[in-house]
Here is the input.
Amino acid sequence: MTAATPRIATLDFLRGLAVMGILLANLPAFGLPEAAYFSPLAWGGSDGLDRAVWFVNFVAVEGKMRGLFSLLFGASMLLVIDRAGDRAAPVHFARMAVLFALGCLHLYLIWWGDILAHYALVGAAAFLFVRLGTRWLVALALMFTLADMLLGAGGAVALFDSAGRATPQAREVWNAFAASFGVPPRADLLAEIAAFRGSFADALAWRWNHAMSPFAFALVLGPQTLGAMLLGMAGYRSGFLTGAWSRAAYRRTALICLGIALPAYAALGLDTIAHGFDQRRVYLASIVITAPFRLLATVGYAALFILLLRPGGAITARIVAVGRAAFTNYLGTSVLMLLLFTGLHQFARLSRAELYLVAPAVWTVMLLWSKPWLDRFAYGPLEWLWRSVARAEVQSMRRTERS
Here is the structure.
């Protein structure tokens, strides 16, 4: 968006809630070994309150806030392209190139769970579809979601076939899945913990040697992300994500989508618990079966959050500001988590439940700084950097009435 064109408050509000919500999904990845993101057995506790927190996060948050972020990325990408007119291609690909570079810096220097470089690659591919109408975008979004589900199903076949671990190859496959969905060898867990409790250089070395490259990540998660981006483009074109629908339509959408998706997630979560977090159940629940329900929940949350928007309200204004500076808030959160878990040597010291005590403090920081900054300046600090480098011209930080 430019300082010369009006903001769309609904998009900013949704983006603000998404960047706040994604912290809930990412906290286990910030403060615990990588495998603990999906499997409570890996680290952080799997009984009592820790199990309850895993269940609530699985049902209400996991995948859905990232899905909402992807939806909004697609909508915002299309908005920029539409406003660029004849210069759409150079503007878009310059933005994606800069985002990719910043994402790689984030990935290797700050946090292994970066999504920005991935968005840049998928966003570049999404440009192929920007001239399509709403119905085509929805149809393709569903097609890519099906492709994501089939890709996951292929992994499930390999995982189940390797469960007997009767051959060296089967053991290798089983252990590869355990690194993300089960319990890796204790020596590997302790090595990861030692790296992230050590110096910043130790943590950087671990990320450099273990973080998945953006290109490999795109092969795994690309269909899912592209499907969500295309649906976001359709949501922008149809007016759904800009608040143009009636409240009754948003209410109906929220009730139907969340009424189907959340009970399905709850059933899968309870099944996973009943099977003792067997990595096969964890993989099926988190990657394969939930694919269509994840998309439904993402749309349902978007509708619900739009219903919560109160133009002119003090809290709404602060959340809108968080969304306007979502790039800065997203990367700023990673820096804060790096300082807490590596700088203060707290990595893997908190239980899963205790990790969530961090969230309100981070949300408070987001809500307190974003609005005063944007009352004075046109962009968040990293939004300004992204825009300036992509345009090869230093942008004015001076705030105008419409910025």
Observations:
- DSSP finds 18 helices and no strands in the chain.
- The chain has a mean pLDDT of 94.
- The first helix runs from residue 9 to 31.
- Residues 9-391 form one domain.
